[in-house]
Amino acid sequence: MSAAARRALVTGASGFVGAALTRRLLADGWEVHLLLREGSSTASLPPESGQLRLHRHDGSINQLIEIMRAAAPEAVFHLASLFLATHKPDDVERLITSNLLFSTQLVEAMAACGVRHLVNTGTSWEHYNGAGYNPVCLYAATKQAFGALLRYYVEAHGLRVVTLKLFDTYGAGDIRPKVLNLLKRLALEGGSLEMSPGEQLVDLVYIDDVIDAYLLAYQQLADGVQLNAVEEYGVSSGHPLPLRDIAALYAQVSGKPLHIVWGGRPYRAREVMVPWHHYNSVPGWRPRMDLPQGLALFHAS
């Protein structure tokens, strides 16, 4: 590895998007430091090496500052979060701890160690019914709340931040319990599946395109384009489709009939029927993977 290799600190690398970002950074020659909670799985990650180092966070701010100082990253990519589409009372503490407390500890450690560049992860679900701010669920509300906290660190400590608000992500090797894996199981195993009426628009962005957006966001910070603000961008395909159409396309790609009982279950409370569309894209970014090809790669994985 070159002595001049750039250093990154990545949170959330045990997740699908974080693991993909880690692999891409390594392939591009970065030295990558992963910040993982105690007990987080590393099954989807390459083995630790001179180019990849794992740090286990015990939950304390002092240890996090020590990790930040040791890693001395040029950029922090913050993807760690707890996602819950709906929550129960017992989930409130976990959501606040994961999405607000840990995230604030992270930027406090950056400020303490003079680390300035942050690519943060938000969600399009902060914009129910296309509103400037109307969270779909408590998860989305915690993401917005951290965005508000970030502005303090920008103003008081000189952090420079780009937040990427993700829509639905997917790709080869994705095993998350999301709708595409329900369709995949149905195609492979047969049977029938009860779903909502299926009229909601779903905005699917292939994982390679998502990672391109993260790297372009970092480049914007490195080039000094964005100063003294939190710049926010949507990472969208630009072509959301009704869930019914996506299921029909999946059946075509897989070559298997999908027996779906449309309307067999109700829409979820505060179902996103039309995704947020009042966003700007990362300058220079556009999705390259078309949906049929992406679904084929997903199905074959």
Automatic annotation (TrEMBL):
Domain NAD-dependent epimerase/dehydratase intervals: 8-226
* Pfam families the record matches: Epimerase (PF01370)
Instruction: Please name the InterPro entries in this protein's record.
Output: Epimerase_deHydtase, Lipid_A_modif_metabolic_enz, NAD(P)-bd_dom_sf
| Database matches in SUPFAM superfamilies | NAD(P)-binding Rossmann-fold domains
Q: What is this protein called?
A: NAD-dependent epimerase/dehydratase family protein
- UniProt organism field: Duganella vulcania
